[in-house]
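Lab meeting, item 3. Inverse folding demo.
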């Protein structure tokens, strides 16, 4: 009797990425079905809110009573992380969850190779990369929406950072931020996001924060470049 063939897993992705993607969907569901007061509070404290941020920095308070400046630095910094966990609608969160797994898997494999194998160190580095890129994308968004602009939510900055890291690291130890290959891919990414931002409202009924995508992509590439430098330094190459 021949042994039964082992069936491939339904989701062929690392468990940490799968759990994180499902967490994004679960958090969106919890917010959608929560009382309206809690839903509004989540957006109020977790979304990127240009008026509140620049009011905290010292700019004009454009919406007094509705969007007062942050009371302290913790409140002002929190959206750079918490915006990752908030999404506009079901399509938004499911699309981001799928991209998180699809792009995160090869990046995790590359990080595992840099760190000498798959393990907690590579997993932690992956999520540091995601949230660092999200923060970078949020910073660019706020800089380009000063003193006002629509609120922004979603894990797109972190996902774009994964893309930037992937496109850079796939070049190997000789990868350079100003190499022709990387600059070509980066140009395509920026142009595609800008065009998508133009047609997004008509196709999806929502605006696309291309600034978050661009900032996250650059932050992810910079993070990956530092990792490669560090790995080469340890190998004395």
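The presenter then showed the designed sequence:
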């Amino acid at each position: 009797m021949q042994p039964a063939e082992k069936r491939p897993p339904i989701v062929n992705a690392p468990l940490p990425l799968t759990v994180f993607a499902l967490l994004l969907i679960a958090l969106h569901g919890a917010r959608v079905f929560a009382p309206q007061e809690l839903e509004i509070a989540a957006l109020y404290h977790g979304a990127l809110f240009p008026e509140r941020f620049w009011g905290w920095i010292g700019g004009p308070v454009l919406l007094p009573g509705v969007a007062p400046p942050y009371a302290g630095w913790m409140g002002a910094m929190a959206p750079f992380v918490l915006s990752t966990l908030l999404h506009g609608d079901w399509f938004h969160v499911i699309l981001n969850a799928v991209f998180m797994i699809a792009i995160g898997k090869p990046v995790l494999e590359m990080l595992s190779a840099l760190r000498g194998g798959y393990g907690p160190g590579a997993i932690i580095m992956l999520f540091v990369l995601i949230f660092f890129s999200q923060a970078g994308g949020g910073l660019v968004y706020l800089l380009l929406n000063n003193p006002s602009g629509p609120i922004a939510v979603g894990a797109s900055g972190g996902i774009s950072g994964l893309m930037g890291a992937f496109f850079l690291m796939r070049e190997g130890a000789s990868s350079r931020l100003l190499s022709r290959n990387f600059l070509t891919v980066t140009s395509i990414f920026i142009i595609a996001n800008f065009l998508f931002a133009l047609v997004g409202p008509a196709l999806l009924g929502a605006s696309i924060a291309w600034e978050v995508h661009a900032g996250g992509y650059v932050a992810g590439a910079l993070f990956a470049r530092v990792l490669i430098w560090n790995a080469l330094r340890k190998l004395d190459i």
